[in-house]
């Protein structure tokens, strides 16, 4: 039978479905989390980006070949005093970008502890990307690409060195995450089943393509 | 679902209706003041059954709302609405919906009296959504709740299966600009937003279809033949492959009538003739094209087959077919119609093949047959089902059986001999009826430049030579409706002689909308970007004037307030609330409270949020010991937007309130003068870190309080009847914590009495230690049992208990106004406290009160 589901070529609209994912940015303060989001969402860069005291929320859509991925982005405050609140944001998230400043080795160590925390506490199928930001400051580099790459490989993280200032790899890292996220319902349901303990908040954004 | 929600948000016509004529019954379960608002809320095909103003509690939140019961086709739904504006011009906006079906529950509680007024309470739930409905009890509210309950009962016994409640969708508030959403509903909201985004994109893409589609010319071949129940001839090529040799049609739609006149065809679905003819058709299609059969549908003698060239097959979608008999009861299908619909690229096409009532005098019957097919033939696999007229292009063929009227066989023969066909058209019933707008409204037909196709003597090209000598007629026709259709050819083929009809063909060049995938993706991305921008630009935004609030030094039971200002600086209404902390903790530690802790801000509006610290007996001990941090980060959440952190710091001055009896009896220095580390050490190991070698029997602090009470006199009525002022309580606390008062405390007796209760309830371990709590309740039956429990207590607890009992006995003697059972209740509550995780119940409260009561009425043996 040649009858197909609606949404085929006939109805004029695109066949692509919209999958919604919660993405959280984590990392030491002043590594450029907000700048990365601002560059990705609005194409802007502010030399003096205000410190985030809270968790900023923005949405941005990425169009892939067959699907559309809508990110709900939570850009969290990096200051240590807010650390205990981080679970509110990575809980139920399907993706995380852990950011460090490649001119500051301490922020790389902090990034590693974030990765560990995510691996322990977040959804088991969360897609984690590691971003070495401020790639434009090559002369002040303190974390070698190879070192970060090796760490990322070991922990199965996506990895890119980015620059919110020059826009290098900013769209790319979000696009890479969008591609890696599971788009089929089954994968998402499994993700939810594994996280039964999570509150309503995860359900809010947990389902894909309903 | 999509169509329903799109119609509610986008169909302005529908909205117009809603404003005009929502059916509202002024029944007894209706607060009449809301009728104008209901007329605006409830669409014409729904009915408002009841409406009352009420309080709705969801989780910890309790808000005034309006509850509406609506009905549609015997299904009911409860709407929880927000009221905007003042009565009678108020507007109702539904912010949550409780369809009354299997997932619905209602539990009505007995009418209760709260503060002098009677209140009716009902618990409603739908799936995971729960709420408590409370309304002032009157006839309207009573009837309203009964209506809901009746609707629920009826829903269980309905004959028809429950619908998916799509009709409720019109009450969904898709607009992000009205943030009347409850945090408890947030999971729902996520889906709603997503659905609306997908739906919105679909609509916007349809609006811009012209930008990413081009019109491509497709050749569409249609043919119709009444074959009189005969087997197919050797070949049909002359008819079906008559197009130009190098221009094979892109689409074929071939209709037959009287394909099978056998009785079996009426009874069985299967017909051998179908296979024979279908095979012959396939063999005879244009030799230059390779065709794929898209669909064949047959109703007895009527058959319709649609083929497309193989290269177009991937662009064909949503194929469906159906048939409609117009014979007896609409079932006997010797007359009627069959249809096939499909989407070719972005153009929807419907082919219909029909066989209408025969005989010259049956014109009205034919008209009715046609209109039945047009109105009733529908394609039900489509969601929603599509009728024939809902297609971009319609090609309608068949043996319509319309005759030539007011003419003779001789005249027709004459006209045909002279190629003067136009003189026949004037006498054609079909054209006449179409011109009168009875049938085929909006359809077009090309000129009939061929001889009438009926009725021939079988095996010849001669018109009816029988006795009846019927007047020839244009029975077999093809008409079309739609844009961008050009007829290339419309003719009959005389060389087929097996039937009393001749086959007819009509070929078209039709403009089909073809999607330019690259262009479409560009526009899609552009739309997404635009929607993202709108969504982000309309995100709620606020500024707060303080992110850090330092309360400085805070003492036990000292109320300290600081406030900050929150201002809506964004483009939309803001709903804010303090979010729960991780691990399901309250939004702040117990000693911190925000007021208001949720609210709404209009654009540009500000509000002051007051944070108040009050370290009460429950928190005192933990803070004394440094077991709880003296800071907190509050999460101020904007619904549908960001979170803002508000940090609170304080420095708690440790106090004798919150210490343990063990520690208190082993020190001389006032607690407030000890460094905190010393206090922690003392509490951790009172014996080892004691200041005193020999401990006091009871704490000095307790003695001072008792002494002050004695001095102020116990006979002056109920000393627990009033509470002391803030200042007075701080004076007592300051005295106890920093110096040993020898004179009288300059405060009222009530303040000292209150401090006694505070002191006892703040004790790190109550007078009856936690581990004796259960035993104590179990032993409350008799005085003897109760006494034996006291014997087991650690010495300092036992001594303190006796000291307190003696004091209370004295108090009872001196103050005639105090009743023993009241005193027992007051003091048992502070002396006999349940362990941290212990639940209190009224019966446990009674038991502990009885326990103490024994000691107050019996002579206490010290």
State the main characteristics.
heterodimer, A: 210 residues, alpha/beta, 6-stranded mixed beta sheet, globular, disordered N terminus, disordered C terminus, B: 862 residues, alpha+beta, PH-domain like, Deoxyribonuclease I, Chain A, Immunoglobulin-like, 8-stranded mixed beta sheet, 25 helices, 27% strand, nucleotide-binding (chain A), GTP-binding (chain A), Small_GTP-bd (chain A), GTP binding (chain A), Small_GTPase (chain A)
Describe the overall structure.
Chain A: Pfam families: Ras (PF00071). Chain A: Belongs to the small GTPase superfamily. Rab family. Chain A: Its main location: other. By secondary structure, chain A is α/β, with parallel strands linked by helices. Chain A is 33% helix and 23% strand. Chain A has helices at 33-42, 86-90, 105-121, 145-154, 170-180, 185-193, 200-206; strands spanning 17-26, 54-63, 67-76, 95-101, 127-133, 158-161. In chain A, helix 4 links the parallel strand 5 (127-133) and strand 6 (158-161). Chain B contains 25 helices and 30 strands. In chain B, helix 5 crosses helix 14 and helix 15 (617-624) packs across helix 20. Chain B has 4 domains: 2-174, PH-domain like (Roll), CATH 2.30.29; 209-517, Deoxyribonuclease I, Chain A, CATH 3.60.10; 542-652, Immunoglobulin-like; 766-862, Phosphatidylinositol 3-kinase, Chain A (Orthogonal Bundle), CATH 1.10.555.10. The longest helix of chain B has 22 residues, at 186-207. Chain B is 32% helix and 27% strand. The interface between A and B is large, with 46 and 61 residues. Strand 2 of chain A pairs antiparallel with strand 30 (643-652) of chain B, so a sheet runs across the interface.
Which stretches of chain A of 5+ consecutive residues score pLDDT under 50?
1-15, 186-210
Q: Unreliable segments of chain B (pLDDT under 50, ≥5 consecutive)?
A: 1-23, 174-195
Overall 3D shape of chain A? globular
Return the structural class of chain A: alpha/beta
Share in β-strands of chain B? 25-35%
User: Quaternary status of these chains?
Assistant: heterodimer
Side by side, the strands of the main sheet of chain A go: 2-3-1-4-5-6
Sheet/helix structural class of chain B: alpha+beta
**First-residue to last-residue Cα separation of chain B:** 79 Å
- Tell me the distance between the termini of chain A: 26 Å
Counted beta strands of chain A? 6
Mean pLDDT score of chain B, rounded?
86
- What can be said about the biggest beta sheet of chain B? 8 strands, mixed
CA-based shape of chain B = elongated
Radius of gyration of chain A: 18 Å
What's the CATH architecture name of the largest domain in chain B? 4-Layer Sandwich
């Amino acid at each position: 039978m040649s009858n197909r589901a609606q949404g085929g070529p006939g109805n004029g609209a695109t066949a692509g479905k919209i999958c919604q994912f919660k993405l959280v940015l984590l990392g030491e303060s002043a590594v450029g989390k907000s700048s990365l989001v601002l560059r990705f969402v609005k194409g802007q860069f502010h030399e003096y980006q205000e410190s985030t005291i809270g968790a900023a929320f923005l949405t941005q859509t990425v169009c892939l070949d067959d699907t559309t991925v809508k990110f709900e982005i939570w850009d969290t405050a990096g200051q240590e005093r807010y650390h205990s609140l981080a679970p509110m944001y990575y809980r139920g998230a399907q993706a995380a970008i852990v950011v460090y400043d490649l001119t500051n080795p301490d922020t790389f160590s902090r990034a590693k502890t974030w990765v560990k925390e995510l691996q322990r506490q977040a959804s088991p199928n969360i897609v984690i990307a590691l971003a070495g930001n401020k790639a434009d400051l090559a002369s002040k580099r303190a974390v070698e690409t190879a070192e970060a790459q090796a760490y990322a490989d070991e922990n199965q993280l996506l990895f890119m060195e980015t620059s919110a200032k020059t826009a290098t790899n900013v769209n790319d890292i979000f696009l890479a995450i969008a591609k890696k996220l599971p788009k089929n319902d089954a994968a998402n349901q499994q993700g939810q089943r594994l996280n039964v303990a999570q509150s309503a908040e995860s359900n809010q954004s947990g389902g894909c393509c309903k | 679902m999509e169509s329903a929600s799109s119609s509610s948000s986008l169909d302005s016509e529908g909205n117009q209706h809603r404003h005009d004529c929502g059916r509202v019954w002024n029944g007894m379960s209706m607060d009449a003041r809301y009728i104008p608002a209901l007329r605006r809320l409830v669409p014409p095909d729904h009915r408002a059954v009841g409406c009352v103003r009420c309080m709705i509690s969801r989780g910890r939140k309790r808000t005034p709302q309006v509850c509406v019961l609506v009905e549609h086709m015997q299904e009911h739904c409860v709407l929880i609405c927000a009221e905007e504006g003042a009565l009678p011009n108020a507007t109702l906006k539904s912010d949550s919906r409780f369809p009354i079906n299997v997932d619905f529950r209602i539990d009505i509680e007995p009418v209760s009296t709260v503060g002098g007024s009677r209140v009716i309470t009902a618990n409603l739930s739908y799936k995971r959504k729960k709420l408590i409905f409370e309304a002032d009890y009157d006839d309207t509210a009573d009837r309203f709740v009964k209506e809901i309950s009746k609707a629920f009962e009826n829903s269980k016994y309905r004959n028809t299966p429950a619908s998916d409640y799509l009709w409720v969708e019109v009450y969904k508030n898709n607009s992000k600009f009205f943030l009347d959403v409850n945090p408890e509903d947030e999971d729902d909201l996520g889906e709603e937003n997503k659905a609306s985004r997908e739906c919105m994109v679909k609509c916007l893409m349809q609006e811009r279809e012209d930008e990413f589609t081009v019109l491509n010319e497709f050749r569409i071949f249609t043919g119709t033949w009444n074959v009189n129940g005969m087997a197919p001839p050797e070949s049909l090529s002359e008819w079906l492959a008559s197009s130009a040799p190098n221009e094979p049609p892109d689409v074929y739609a071939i209709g037959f009538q009287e394909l099978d006149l056998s009785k079996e065809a009426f009874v069985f679905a299967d017909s051998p003739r179908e296979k024979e003819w279908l095979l012959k058709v396939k063999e005879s299609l244009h030799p230059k094209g390779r065709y794929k059969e898209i669909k064949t549908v047959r109703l007895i003698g009527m058959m319709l087959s649609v083929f497309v060239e193989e290269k177009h097959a991937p662009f064909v979608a949503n194929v469906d077919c159906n048939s409609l008999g117009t014979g007896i009861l609409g079932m006997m299908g010797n007359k009627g119609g069959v249809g096939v619909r499909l989407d070719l690229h972005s153009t929807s096409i419907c082919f219909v093949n029909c066989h209408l009532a025969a005989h010259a005098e049956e014109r009205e019957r034919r008209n009715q047959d046609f209109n039945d097919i047009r109105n009733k033939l529908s394609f039900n696999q489509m969601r929603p089902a599509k009728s024939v007229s809902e297609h971009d292009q319609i090609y309608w063929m068949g043996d319509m059986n319309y005759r030539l009227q007011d003419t003779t066989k001789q005249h027709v023969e004459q006209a045909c001999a002279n190629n003067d066909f136009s003189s026949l058209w004037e006498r054609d019933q079909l054209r006449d009826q179409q011109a009168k707008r009875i049938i085929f409204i909006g359809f077009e037909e090309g000129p009939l430049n061929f001889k009438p196709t009926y009725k021939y003597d079988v095996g010849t090209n001669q018109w009816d030579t029988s006795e009846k000598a019927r007047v020839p007629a244009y029975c077999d026709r093809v008409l079309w409706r739609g844009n961008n259709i050009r007829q290339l050819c419309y003719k009959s083929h005389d060389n087929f002689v097996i039937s009393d009809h001749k086959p007819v063909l009509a070929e078209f060049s039709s403009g089909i909308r073809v999607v330019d995938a690259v262009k479409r993706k560009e526009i899609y991305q552009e739309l997404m970007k635009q929607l993202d921008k709108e969504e982000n630009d309309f995100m709620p935004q606020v500024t707060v004037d303080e992110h850090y609030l330092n309360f400085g030094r805070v003492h036990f039971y000292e109320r300290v307030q600081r406030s900050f200002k929150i201002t809506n600086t964004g483009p939309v209404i803001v709903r804010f609330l303090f979010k729960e902390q991780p691990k399901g903790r309250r939004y702040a530690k117990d000693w911190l409270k925000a007021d208001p802790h949720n609210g709404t801000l209009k654009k540009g509006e500000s509000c002051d949020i007051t944070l108040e610290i009050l370290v009460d007996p429950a928190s005192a001990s933990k803070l004394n010991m440094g077991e709880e941090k003296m800071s907190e980060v509050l999460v101020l959440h904007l619904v549908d937007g960001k979170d803002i952190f508000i940090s609170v710091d304080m420095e708690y001055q440790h106090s004798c309130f919150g210490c343990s009896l063990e520690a208190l009896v082993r020190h001389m220095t006032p607690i407030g003068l000890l460094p905190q580390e010393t206090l922690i050490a003392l509490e951790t190991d009172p014996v080892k870190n004691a200041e005193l070698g020999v401990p006091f029997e009871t704490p000095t602090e307790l003695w001072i309080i008792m002494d002050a009470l004695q001095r102020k006199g116990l006979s002056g009525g109920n000393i627990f009847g009033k509470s002391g002022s803030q200042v007075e309580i701080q004076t007592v606390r300051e005295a106890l914590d920093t110096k040993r008062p020898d004179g009288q405390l300059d405060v009222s007796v009530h303040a000292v009495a209150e401090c006694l209760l505070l002191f006892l309830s703040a004790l790190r371990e109550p007078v009856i230690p936690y581990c004796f709590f259960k035993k104590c309740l179990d032993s409350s039956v008799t005085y003897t049992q109760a006494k034996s429990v006291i014997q087991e207590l650690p010495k300092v607890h036992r001594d303190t208990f006796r000291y307190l009992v003696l004091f209370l006995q004295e108090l009872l003697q001196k103050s005639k106004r105090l009743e023993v059972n009241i005193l027992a209740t007051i003091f048992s509550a502070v002396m006999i406290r349940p362990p941290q995780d212990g639940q209190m119940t009224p019966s446990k409260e009674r038991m502990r009160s009885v326990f103490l009561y024994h000691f107050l009425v019996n002579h206490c043996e010290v």
